[in-house]
Amino acid sequence: MAKVTFREERCKGCGLCVSACPRKIVSLDESKLNSQGHHPAHVVEMDKCIGCACCATMCPDCVIKVER
Length: 68
Ligand code: SF4
Ligand code: SF4
Description:
By secondary structure, the protein is of the alpha+beta class. Helix content is 15%, strand content 21%. The protein has one domain (3-67): Alpha-Beta Plaits (2-Layer Sandwich), CATH 3.30.70. It has helices at 16-20, 54-58, and strands at 3-6, 26-28, 41-43, 64-67. The chain has a two-stranded antiparallel ribbon. A two-stranded antiparallel sheet has the order 2-3. The N and C termini lie close together (7 Å). One iron/sulfur cluster binds at residues 6, 11-17, 41, 58-59, 61, 63-64.
């Protein structure tokens, strides 16, 4: 199974990764704020991830790492 990790402190909450995910499993975590004051992106159902790395490719700030 693929593993997706986020460097949350670098996330600016732009949501580009949210719209890029074909499985619709990336969202902004409304329960968290990073030190920049943004809700960081996270994966809600990792078991549905296909490891396509569309999210990581889309992120302008290299926040996301996908391991397959
Ligand atoms: S690797 Fe693909 S399926 Fe997995 S969270 Fe990123 S965009 Fe979605
Ligand atoms: S694309 Fe990058 S900076 Fe934008 S919300 Fe996703 S992880 Fe955060």
